[in-house]
Please model this.
Amino acid sequence: MILSPLWLPVTLAAALFQCWRTALQQKLRGQLSINAAAVVRYLYGVPVGALLLALYLLVFGGGLPAPNLPFLLLCAAGGLGQILGTNLLIMAFGHRGFAVGTAYAKTEAVQGAILALVLLGERISALAWIGIAIGVAGVLWLSLAGKARSAGELLRATVQPAALCGLTSGFFFALTSVLIKAANQELPGDDPILRALATLVATNILQTAMQGGWLLAREPDQARAVITTWRSSAQVGALSACGSACWFTGFALAPVALVRAVGQVEILFTLLFSRFYLRESPTRAEVVGALTVVSGVVLVLAGR
Model:
């Protein structure tokens, strides 16, 4: 059920923030390990998320919803899923670059639709399902760079390291979406946006504790590097908090499948960042794949 048309603009904003953050995070990857590059988004995102929550309360009023144990457990599980998804995405970058690594993870749209149907009972129209399928086909074309011409080539391309990392990353991101929506629904109160921002802050705090604790125990040198790179890392954290605030709000206002499907427009932002920020040159096949993804998003919107 769609609670507000606001879900669409916040989803588009989420896709932009996420792409921007991932591009900065990819540059940080040259200075930090996989875990350190991932933990900056949570550590430096906590104060920004808290500020967004405080501003929302100041403008719209109300009180903080009281957290309960199911809420905290769902936030922890969703936060862990996002940590795993982020680490796998960064690993995918190392195999085939920023644009293609992100493309594999975008299969989260169809994975999210299936998980939301099974775990939350969310149903969407047949046209929306077709749109999701077309979008995923565009992602697959993009990830294969148009090179697979037979079933055997397709299978071999799908089991390469970049594909496995990206596909598994997409699964964990999809699972995170479902868990975060469930966490939001566990909080009391009638304002879904306030609940979304409270969920963001709680999740980021738990993620900082989980991955930050791992970093301190296993990679103490990298823990120090997270602090010394604070100028770049703080930008990643701020963009991550803004993006997650938009994602969490979208999940609170509309079905997970629709939010994740529309979020596939991130691939357009990705190609632009890849070309003009990271100086990677997209191929004609990648442009065709991106346009196919957009066609799928249009069908999702038509079928909502």
